[in-house]
Amino acid sequence: MGHAEQDARPEPAVQAEPDARPEQSGHPEPDHRAEPDHRTDPHYRAEPDHRADPDHRTDPDSHPEAAVPPRSDAPGAPEVPYAEARTGVAALSPRYQVGAALALAVVAVAVCVHLGMVFLHVAPSNTLTKAHGEAIDEWVYPEFEQNWKLFAPNPLQQNIAVQVRAEVQAANGEVRTTGWYDLSAEDGRAIDGNLVPSHTQQNELRRAWDFFVATHDSNNRPSGLRGALSESYLRRIVALRLDRDDAAGKGGVVDRVQVRSSTTNVTPPSWSAEKISDKPLYRVLPWWQVTAADTDGGAE
Q1: Residue of 265, 276, 259 lying closest to 212 (CA atoms)
Q2: Other CB atoms within 10 Å distance of the CB of residue 198
Q3: Contact status, residue 288 vs residue 235, Cβ threshold 8 Å
């Protein structure tokens, strides 16, 4: 019974020992042990105090890099706008710009008129050509005449050479007749090997002869005003060619000229059985008196 009573007595409560660690709060105190001691650190360098210096925001010596503007081609540099230099017509003064515009307008109108005249010349007969045919012919002939024989069903199969000879009065009064100058052969030699032959070398003499033949009958009599014009045009060309070849000699004068054509058939290929004559056919024109207008580049 005694032991039971003794066990029934409650044991004294044991008090918990207080925790020696301080309570953690939401703002932990800084640990000064991790910071280096500036007084004992040999690598420590104090930051300069600009408050005692002059205003470093405006003093270029305090920040030398601020005194030099950044290069425009440096990476990240802002783009600096610049005015583009004007070229061409835009660089001219307003007065000259107006003059250039007027000149271009005149050239454009002249080109349009020329193209229109040539188109009407080669176009089939229509209302405009019937009403203004004379004006069109005056514009086109003889320099701008068009020849479409290349596209004909039966193209030209002959070689035509234009030749000329002259009656020359020498300085001592003697009159002599030169030999025949092959003007077509001279043009051929000038064109041969020339990558960019002139229009004169290719077409002037040939077109002048075609113009003459088209405006004269088989007896070399002109038909209308165009016949007289073609004769004057051909005479002027041969007179200038003879002067270039110095046909009269030193002190001599060309009094008259005579033109002829030599027509030779093109030789057929070796595989062809066609038989044609290889003898040249000549068309000889009468003698023409040469005037000062012919040698000066004009025409009567």
Answers
A1: 259
A2: 12
A3: yes
